[in-house]
Design brief:
Length: about 150
């Protein structure tokens, strides 16, 4: 499952997440905003699940833990809290390679990947890049687990 959490407005380019959703992946869209009617019209389980309304902090943590990825196709973020919140819950991020996000995820990063959701072959690239990022994330998790195990024993 891939989730967008945040304000529903045109500059967030949520429609790109919908069009780039890899086959067999559920996109959960959580939040509210001026595009409410449009986003609610996308509700089409199990492909797209729309959860309208702001969520309390504890519920957001459950959303982050329940998803495989948080995603944002926004072309500009001043700070972008969602990837940090998700990382705190152990969930990596798929983010548009754009100002604000490219300061959060480096090329060799294991907390997620920078993508081009607006690329011509966005769906194929999202699926391929997220698969590669999964391998990196799992490799880091395994390395940290082994390091902690060896250190503690």
């Amino acid at each position: 499952m891939m989730a967008y959490v945040g304000r529903w407005s045109a500059e967030k380019r949520i429609h790109l997440l919908k069009s780039c959703r890899p086959a067999g992946t559920t996109l959960a869209i959580v939040g509210d905003g001026p595009m409410r009617r449009v986003v609610e019209s996308w509700h089409d389980p199990p492909r797209v699940v729309v959860l309208t309304g702001m969520r309390p902090r504890a519920e957001l943590a459950r959303v982050y833990r329940a998803t495989d990825w948080v995603a944002s196709a926004s072309a500009f973020e001043t700070f972008g809290n969602v990837p940090y919140e998700a990382a705190h819950c152990g969930t990596p991020a798929l983010l548009q390679d754009a100002q604000g996000f490219n300061d959060q995820i480096d090329a060799g990063e294991s907390r997620g990947a920078l993508l081009r959701f607006d690329a011509e072959n966005g769906e194929a690239r999202t699926a391929a890049d997220s698969a590669g990022a999964v391998v990196g994330y799992l490799t880091l998790t395994l390395a940290l687990t082994l390091t902690l195990t060896l250190t503690l024993t």
